[in-house]
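User: Second chain of the day. Same drill as before.
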Amino acid sequence: ARVSVQESVLYPREYNAVNVGGTVSLMEAMRDVGVRRVVLVSSGAIYGEQELQPLRENMAPNPRSPYAVSKLAAEYYVNTIGDLWNIETVSLRVFNAYGPGQHLPPSHPPVVPYFLKQALRGGSLVVHSDGNQTRDYVYVDDVVSALVAASTAPNLDGLVINVGSGRETAVRDLVKAVMDVTDSKAQVIYNPKTSPGVSRMCADLTLAAQKLNYRPSISLVDGLRLTLQRDPHFGG
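Assistant: Same format as last time:
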């Protein structure tokens, strides 16, 4: 899948081809070999700007980028094709996942590995807008536990389930946590001319707890430390 919100604004056709077309192609292949259950990794970006937090699965989607639109379309395709071909399907709306091994491209990098890299090398950490926008950062091990549960738990067919930490963190607080765990004195630059994106994001995990027995266990600070320890890019 293609996963950058900012990049999708530049290349919407590519995001549609990969995230939607690729998903439909996989569903056809799984039908042909008799797969009985499909777990789609979707995205919390589908919610977009909402009046209330935390974000619940029954809220109307409000996608604000081609990436978010592509993930919502993939959800609809997977659910509809599953109904037509008698395949159980469940979509997990994963929020801001991070952890060791996360791809770090030169343009539009994910915020957590980008901040860690800049802090370690003494570069500048550039924050969009004032840094008060919030996100739900969830460590990869917690995401994996949800994926494993979704592959076997009963009575999930057709459901959409949030997967996050359930904690709302401002980007400026993420910066502070990164600086603390790296013991860095790197410069932090706030760029008021860039868009902060969606103002707030925090996952409601009630359904995940009920259906998947999902209880995230890794705090942001612990997750950042584990990323530093386990990712060879950071000397792990």
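The chain has a mean pLDDT of 96.

User: Great, on to the next one.
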